[in-house]
Amino acid sequence: MTTSSFHSVSFAPGERLMLSFLVTLLILVACVLSTETTMPTQNMSHKERAELREEAREMFYHAYHAYMENAYPADELMPLSCKGRYRGVTPSRGDMDDILGNFSMTLVDTLDTLVLLGDFTEFEHAVKLVIRDVQFDSDIIVSVFETNIRMVGGLLSAHILAEYLQKHADTMHWYKGELLEMSRELGYRLLPAFNTSTGIPHARVNLRLGMKDPLLKKSRETCTACAGTILLEFAALSRLTGDPIFEVRAHAAMDALWKLRHRGSDLMGTVLNVHSGDWVRRDSGVGAGIDSYYEYLFKSYVLLGDDKYLARFNRHYNAVMKYVSEGPMLLDVLMHRPHAKSKNFMDSLLAFWPGLQVLSGDLKPAVQTHEMLYQVMQMHTFIPEAFTVDFQIHWGQHPLRPEFIESTYFLYRATGDHHYLQVGKKALKTLQQHAKVACGYAAVNDVRTRKHEDRMDSFVLSETIKYLFLLFSDPQDLIINVDEFVFTTEAHLLPLSIAQLGNATFSFRQSDEHNVLDFMRTCPSSNKLFPEKVRKPLRNFITGSCPRTTAGKRLSALDFQASNADHLRAVYDMGITMVSVGDRSQGKAKSHEEGEMGLQFMQEMLELTKMQSVNQLAQLQAVAYATDEKAQDWVALMAGPSHFSPELIGDQFVQGDVVLARPLRACDEHLENAEEAKGKVLVAERGDCTFVSKARLAQKVGAAALIVCDNVPGSSGETQPMFAMSGDGKDDVLIPVVFMYSVEFGKLSAVMQRRKQPLRVRVMQMVEFKRWQLAKAQRQNQTATTTQKPDKEL
Ligand code: DMJ
User: Fold this and answer.
1) Which residue CA neighbors atom 1 of ligand 1 most closely?
2) Which H helix or E strand runs over 689?
3) Catalytic residue set
């Protein structure tokens, strides 16, 4: 995404206002800090930068040709099997496949990158292919959000650029707006999703049947980002076609979302009910589930010049900076209790935030968060999908996402600091070394093992490589002036001049020669904006590879992990003793201050126990089994909960024999041993498809519960934090689903192999298991002389 903040063209009044606003913000911040700036650490020569630009170009063609030659007209390339991924043909990955509509998504998503690369010949060829091959009348349920950002955005941007080339490159004279017609048709196919009582669109729609598909009958939940990332494309669609319906619907959805903010905190949750407007998940951050809602508020203001969106963005922004931002970190809170952190991990999607902060003029926190993310990247090679506040891996996948490179690009454009070129170089070389395969670029299944996945998302071409290419390009290397455009969340280009279009004919205006970069060269010098001063103190923010504990920082109850020895020590120093049977000595605080910290800790613990949904201790699950035939002695293995299945609380448990799914990953439509799985506790291995799709399959075959076991050898709940598996916002899974790391599952598996009979397990809450064991031990002590009664069933 970019705005008019760096070059000036012939601006209309609204645009001029935006330009001056953005520039003023940049100058203000820059002038305040320019007194103590230092020179950048390591400059990059023009030659090296040009070489990297060419390497980014080669990367593009490596991936693009791999897709075109082996996968087109499929939606995606599968880079390991070197073939196309087709919806309904390629084995399903569950709901993850909702992005696929058998409409050649990667090519559509990539069209405008071809223009940025200056490859008009291939662009023209690709546009002809899209017009000839792509059709939308399919009985397929797709994600409204993904179809909008990748397909509608891709078609619109390509249409705009095709007309631009007709005018400025004397080419494509045969083109008569076919892509715009296609985007209009696709827009109409998405519109049924907006027929809700709130005006907030459903998450999914059937391309042919609209909402009449019986599978969509129960549809009611969507994410904030899903509903709030429509306006840029729909406004462009309306203004270019002259049909107001799209823009009207998208504004209504934004208005409805705004009304749902928490009036006290000004924060939004992440999942909501489209009919009632009730929040389903009240976690509030800037990453998964909400990210591009904030982005579209700001960019809607930039593109359309409507002040209300700036005002809304500012309200949310202030709330985020007040409650979510903690130093360079961004940690989810509860929208209605914003002082309570709701997660102890961050997700990689939030890496877009510094880029948005740059555009809104708040450079300092952008530099800080970017620096933190850079260190996470250096520590783990890639930024993992989720990482803890200790910067340990929470979810190790890395699908070659663009967000961090996007922010790097905007920080470079705003500061001119060559540090960001060096960061980009590191990101580029890492992709080359660890993701490049013979047939494109493969996602990384786990950054620890760097094992590849048979997946190359369309955003690799439309965003990741595009932003790398832009980072290493000078404005004169590009055929278009990107500062005349807003980049959508999928990095598609929409011209700022759209603001002036009603039903009028769309036309480009020539840019004048006044260049805001000239101005930035004087005061302040862009080379001296925040280079070392802001970044340097953060260089050691992530210390070594060990989890940080209390050194200088109070351990909060939410961060506390009972399995972490450092945490136990810190808690002991605060005067809190973890009492176990046979050890009833009282803890004594080391010092008065630590005693107070202990009290605060206990208060937080009490607070947390009130909030079952975020209390990790209470959420910890157990897979328990009897060690003897009479079921007298039981042991429990640690397991994690899921966000999408019913929580086992109190004395609830599910009991059944353990059965391994065949195939073990349980990603296909059917299980070979479906009959055997009925009423049992099914085990499926992590990978190939989402947790929730495995759960749906287990439920379909009638399993009583599902255990998902990790696919990373050696992983253990003893050494890494337990997490709750994420779903997709729907609540149709009715059986308990728990996650076991490899070491814990290995123990279970060893017992299974030793037994002649099937192993019977109970899936339950760990706290409840402990309570049960404790009660049993006390009973045994009290009745040592009397006859032991059989253990009471839970
Ligand atoms: C892209 O499709 C878009 O950037 C979206 O807004 C969020 N995620 C992916 C890339 O990570």
Assistant:
1) 490
2) none
3) 146, 291, 385, 403
Say yes or no: CB of residue 492 within 6 Å of ligand 1.
Answer: no
Give the residue from 637, 644, 621, 616 showing the smallest Cα distance to 735: 644
**pLDDT band of 25, cuts 50, 70, 90:** very low
pTM: 0.67
Distance of CA 559 to the CA centre of its chain: 21
* Distance between Cα 253 and ligand 1 center (Å): 20
Q: How far is the CA of 638 from the centre of ligand 1 (A)?
A: 34
Beta carbon of 459 within 6 Å of any ligand 1 atom: yes
Ligand 1 neighbourhood includes 406 CB (under 6 angstroms): no
For ligand 1, atom 6, which residue shows the shortest CA distance? 489
Report cis status (omega within 30 of 0) of the bond before 73. Answer: yes
Query: Which token pair is 358?
Result: 């740059």
Structure tokens at 127: 């546009």
Give nearest CA residue, ligand 1 atom 3: 490
Decide: 298 in ligand 1 pocket, CB within 6 A: no
Mean predicted lDDT score pLDDT of the chain: 84
3-class DSSP string for 257-325: HHHCCCCCCCCCCCEEECCCCCEEECEECCCCCCHHHHHHHHHHHHHHCCHHHHHHHHHHHHHHHHHHE
pLDDT tens per residue, range 351-373: 999 999 999 999 999 999 999 99
Closest CA to 124 of 91, 64, 171, 189: 171
| Residue 701, helix vs strand vs coil | coil
Atom of ligand 1 nearest to the CA of 349: 11
Residues 116, 478 contacting (CB under 8 angstroms)? yes
Q: Between the CA of residue 223 and those of 200, 291, 727, what are the distances in Å?
A: 10, 10, 11
Structure confidence at residue 772 (pLDDT): 82
CA distance 15 to 500: 10
Q: What tokens were used for 394?
A: 């929470």
Ligand 1 centroid – CA 460 distance (Å): 10
Q: Are the C-beta atoms of residues 423 and 374 closer than 8 Å to each other? A: yes
State whether the beta carbon of 765 lies less than 6 angstroms from ligand 1.
Answer: no
Residue 330: beta bridge partners? 325
Decide whether any atom of ligand 1 lies within 6 Å of the 292 Cβ: yes
CA 109 to centroid of ligand 1, rounded, Å: 12
Whether the CB-CB separation of 328 and 371 falls below 8 Å is answered with: yes
Answer yes or no: is pLDDT of 778 > 60. yes
Cβ burial of 578 (10 Å; 0-12, 13-18, 19+) is exposed
> Looking at the predicted structure, is the pLDDT value of residue 5 above 60?
no
**Nearest CA, atom 10, ligand 1:** 401
Mutate to test the pocket of ligand 1, among 106, 146, 459, 461 (most ligand atoms within 8 A of CB): 459
Q: Is the CB of 402 under 6 A from ligand 1?
A: yes
Tell me the three state secondary structure of residue 726.
coil
Question: What is the average pLDDT across 235-259?
Answer: 97
The set of residues, in sequence order, having a beta carbon less than 8 Å from that of 136 and lying 6+ positions away, is 101, 103, 182, 185, 186, 189, 207
User: What is the residue whose two structure tokens read 């913000």?
Assistant: 25
- Say how many Å lie between the first and final Cα of the chain, rounded: 56
What pLDDT is recorded for position 781?
A: 75
Residue 595 has pLDDT above 70, yes or no: no
Residue of 691, 742, 722, 696 whose CA lies nearest to 621: 722
Alpha-carbon separation of residue 38 from 438, 529, 536 (angstroms): 43, 9, 11
Distance 483 CA to ligand 1 centre (A): 21
Between the CA of 175 and the centroid of ligand 1 the distance, in Å, is 30
